[in-house]
Amino acid sequence: MNRGKLITFEGGDGSGKTTQLSLTVDALKAQGKDVLQTFEPGDSPLGKELRHLLLSGEYIPAAQTELLLFLADRAQHVQTVIRPALDAGKWVVCDRYTDSTLAYQLAGRKLEDNQQLRDMLKWAECGVSPDMTIWLDLSVQDAALRMASRQTGGEVANRLDNEKTAFHQSVYQAFDNIQRENTERVKRINAKQGIQAVQIDIQALLQNL
Ligand code: TMP
């Protein structure tokens, strides 16, 4: 059996990532593909506990602890969810992956971006890297407006959503750099467009896989 493909979605909070990911999964299924939709952090039994530790706001981890917990979640997710699905020939569509750790922990938390940390991030992937990454590019200002209206609508922000604007600026800048450094793998989509227009762009990219 052919190994499946791993497609990851990245972007700041409020970029419409979750909506676009679901639409993409529906479209792939409509093409007859066997698809697994998943997310990080938290889509395994152990990961669910790690997500609570990381995002509930009950704990304020040190930057190093935060990084290690996200990597722990990833290793568990790859070993128990992502790799078995890929080996079974499925297309795996994952909401966030290693690029989020680069953006939020290394850039956002200002951990030193050295080879040792890069190697650790790679190691936690257990040999599984994305075939394509879709970055939904939305400015920090536009994302903040969307987040504010969502919260008025009753949605609860997680601990990282509530970080200051400077943090979100660093995250944005990091995604921008990641895209420029990995143009083959990481595709930029203008997330300011309407939902349908964004989805059309994503579909066009997926044709190349
Ligand atoms: P989300 O489920 O709404 O995307 O929230 C997940 C949060 O976790 C989001 O604020 C980004 C953050 N995150 C990191 O900081 N590092 C990571 O490696 C991952 C996967 C997510």
Helix and strand arrangement:
Layout: E1 6-10, H1 17-30, E2 35-39, H2 45-55, H3 63-87, E3 91-95, H4 98-108, H5 115-124, E4 132-137, H6 140-152, H7 165-181, E5 186-190, H8 195-206
The structure holds thymidine-5'-phosphate.
Q: Name the bound molecules.
A: thymidine-5'-phosphate
**What is the helix fraction of residues, given as a range?**
40-55%
Distance N terminus to C terminus?
17 Å
On the 0 to 100 scale, the average pLDDT is 95
Strand content: 5-15%
Number of strands: 5
Return the string of H and E elements. EHEHHEHHEHHEH
User: What oligomeric state best describes the polypeptide chains here?
Assistant: single chain
In the predicted model, the low-confidence regions spanning at least 5 consecutive residues are: none
Order of strands, main sheet, comes to 2-3-1-4-5
Number of helices: 8
Radius of gyration: 16 Å
Structural class comes to alpha/beta
Report the sheet with the most strands, covering strand number, pairing sense and barrel closure: 5 strands, parallel
Shape estimate: globular
Descriptive keywords:
209 residues; alpha/beta; 8 helices; binds thymidine-5'-phosphate
Quick structural summary:
The chain is an alpha/beta fold.
Description:
With 209 residues, the protein is an alpha/beta fold. Helix content is 54%, strand content 12%. The protein is built from 8 helices and 5 strands, in the order βαβααβααβααβα. A 5-stranded parallel β-sheet has the order 2-3-1-4-5, sandwiched between helices. Helix 1 packs across helix 8, helix 3 packs parallel to helix 5 and helix 4 crosses helix 7. The chain is globular and about 45 Å long. The site of thymidine-5'-phosphate has 14 residues, from helix 4.
